[in-house]
Amino acid sequence: MKTKKVIKKKLTDEEYYDTHSILGDIVDEDIDLSLDDALKESIITGKRKRKLRNVSIKIDPLYLQSIKKIATLKSIPYQTLMRQWLVKEIRKELKIA
Length: 97
Known about the structure:
Elements: H1 13-19, H2 37-45, H3 61-74, H4 78-94
Helix pairs in contact: 3-4
């Protein structure tokens, strides 16, 4: 009797999150997070070298359209607007600004 060898395909991040739920990993409590003092100071002062990295996220097309409209009204690129929102929320969450 012959057995077939099953080769599992490695999933991309996008494929993984399409098929796996992370809801079980979410906790509804504060998490104590600390940053290296030098990094924290760099974030607060904004005096660090900018090294931007591309990331991919899935977003509802209606939200993306709304973001683009808001960015147009503010006369800035929509990706810059999203980056500003992320920075604001990160600083708020980490209580550093």
